[in-house]
Amino acid sequence: MKSSTAPLIAFVGTTPNIGTTTAAYAAAYRIAEATGRSVGYLCLHLKSAKLHRFLGIDQPQSSLDKLRPELRSESLTADKLMRASYRPAHLPGLHVLFGNMARDQAEFFTPEEANHLLDIAEQAFSIVILDAGAYWDNAATVCSLRRASTRVVVTTPALSHFGEDGQRWIGQVSPLFGVASDQYEALIIHSPWRTGGFTMKDICKEMGTSLLGEQRLSPALFSQLDNGRYEEWLKSDEEGKQMMRQPAQLFMKRYGLGLQQGPRSVIQPWYRKLIAHRGGVGS
C-alpha cells in the first residue's frame, strides 16, 4: 500500500448530457497513457451510468453496486477495488469502476459508503478521476466534491447551462456543503451543432470560477459513443488523440506525474570497463 494518498480530481456537470463523462474519461485515459502510472476512474453515477455503453460493454462484470456489501461494512480493500475495475487491454494502468447499475438502490448510497470508497481509491492509485455526473441529490456527488483536491465544473456556452444551472448548483448549493464557487475550475464544452454564445471569460465570471480550458465535440465523436467505440477513438483517431490532452497535462504537472520514460538501455559490464579504459569517452 502506498505511503501517501492520491489526489482526487472531481468532474461535475452543471447540466445532464453535455459531455461530463466524455471529458472525465478522456482525462483519465490521457494521464494513464502519458505517465504509465496507476490511474483510477470512478464512475459515481447512481442513476444514469453510461460509460460502459460508450466502451461497448453491455453488461459489466463488476460495477459500483456490486461493491455495496464491502462499502456498507467498510471492508473494501485496494486489491478488491482494483480487481473490480475494468482495464483496457492496451492501457493496463487505467482502472475503471463502472457506475451503479441497480438504480432502485441509488437513494440508499450513504456518505459513509462514499467516503470509504474514496479512502480506498486514494490508497490504490497514483491519481483518481471522479465522474460525479450532473445530479447533486446524492452522497456520492457531495462527498466527491468535498474531498477533491481539484474540482472541475463542466458546462457549455448556453446561458441556461452556465447561468441558470451553474448558479443553482455551483453558486447556491455547493457553498452549503463547504465548497465555494471559486474552488472550481470550468471546462467549457462546445457542441458541434451550436455556434456563438458567451465567451469563456463571461462564463467564468458568471459562475465565479477560474478557467481550466475548453473542449470541442464533433459529430464523429458522437458516432463513436453510440457505437461503443470511444476507447478506440481516443487511442487511434487523430482527433481523438487530442481529446482532453491539455487539461490532462495540467493535472500531471500540478501533481508531479511525469511523462512515461522509454525503456532504458542496459549497459553491459564489459562496456563499462571499455568506457573506463577510454577515460569516459563513449565513442
What attributes characterize this protein structure?
alpha/beta, globular, Rossmann fold, about 280 residues, 12 helices, single chain, 7-stranded parallel β-sheet
Concise structural overview:
The chain is of the alpha/beta class.
Number of E-type strands = 7
CATH homolog superfamily: P-loop containing nucleotide triphosphate hydrolases
Report helical residue fraction. Answer: 25-40%
Calculate Rg over CA atoms. Answer: 21 Å
CA distance, first residue to last residue: 44 Å
Share of β-strand residues: 5-15%
CATH topology: Rossmann fold
What can be said about the biggest beta sheet?
A: 7 strands, parallel
Strands side by side in the biggest sheet: 3-2-4-1-5-6-7
Shape: globular
> What would you say the CATH architecture is?
3-Layer(aba) Sandwich
Q: Segments where pLDDT lies below 50 for 5+ residues?
A: 262-268, 278-283
Total count of domains = 1
Helix- and strand-based class?
Answer: alpha/beta
Structure overview:
This protein has helices at 20-35, 51-54, 68-72, 78-83, 111-124, 139-147, 159-173, 200-207, 219-226, 230-236, 245-254, 269-277, and strands at residues 8-13, 39-43, 94-97, 127-131, 150-155, 185-190, 210-216. The chain has 283 residues and is α/β, with parallel strands linked by helices. It has a single domain, classed as Rossmann fold. Helix 5 packs across helix 6. The model is unreliable at 262-268 and 278-283 (pLDDT under 50).
